C-alpha cells in the first residue's frame, strides 16, 4: 500500500512540475518520508542524495536558461537578468489563475522582463522583441527540461523503493 501511495504522489508531482509548482521537491520529500514510514531502508542514501542533486540541477536550469537564451538572441546581461527576474515575478503573479496561471505568468514575465530591460538599455522595439522572444524560448526549454528531469527522478525513486 505504501508503494502505491508513493507512486500516486510521484505522478501527481509530475503534474505539479508542468504547472510551475514545486513538484520536484515533493518527490524528494516523499522519498524521504517513504524511508521513514516503511520499515527497512528501501531507498538508499545514495538515491536520496542523487535525486536531491537532480532537483537542484533542474532548479538551476529553470532560472538560468531564460537569461542564456535572451543573451543568445542578442541581448545584454541586463536583458538576461530581466528575463530571470521577470520569470520569477510572473510565476508568483500568475498563481491566482487556476491550474496554469503560474506557467503562463512565468512565460509572460520572462518575455516582459527581457523586453523592459533591453528597451531601458537603449534598444529599439525590434531588437528588444527579438531578445524577449529568446527569453521566452529559454523559459519553454527550461520547463521541458525540468519535466524531463522530474520523470527521471520519479522513475529513480519508484525503482529504488521497489528494490
Task: Write out key terms for the chains shown.
163 residues, mainly alpha, 83% helix, elongated
Extended strand count: 0
The radius of gyration computed from the alpha-carbon positions, rounded to a whole number of angstroms, is 18 Å
Distance between the termini: 15 Å
Number of domains: 1
Major beta-sheet overview: none
Q: What does it look like?
A:
The protein has 163 residues and is mainly alpha-helical. The protein has one domain (2-162). It has helices at 2-18, 23-37, 45-72, 77-94, 101-120, 125-162. The two termini are 15 Å apart.
Layout of strands and helices, then pairs:
Blueprint: H1 2-18, H2 23-37, H3 45-72, H4 77-94, H5 101-120, H6 125-162
Helix pairs in contact: 1-2, 1-6, 2-3, 2-6, 3-4, 3-6, 4-5, 4-6, 5-6
Quick take:
The protein is mainly α. The chain has helices spanning 2-18, 23-37, 45-72, 77-94, 101-120, 125-162. The model has no long low-confidence stretch (mean pLDDT 88).
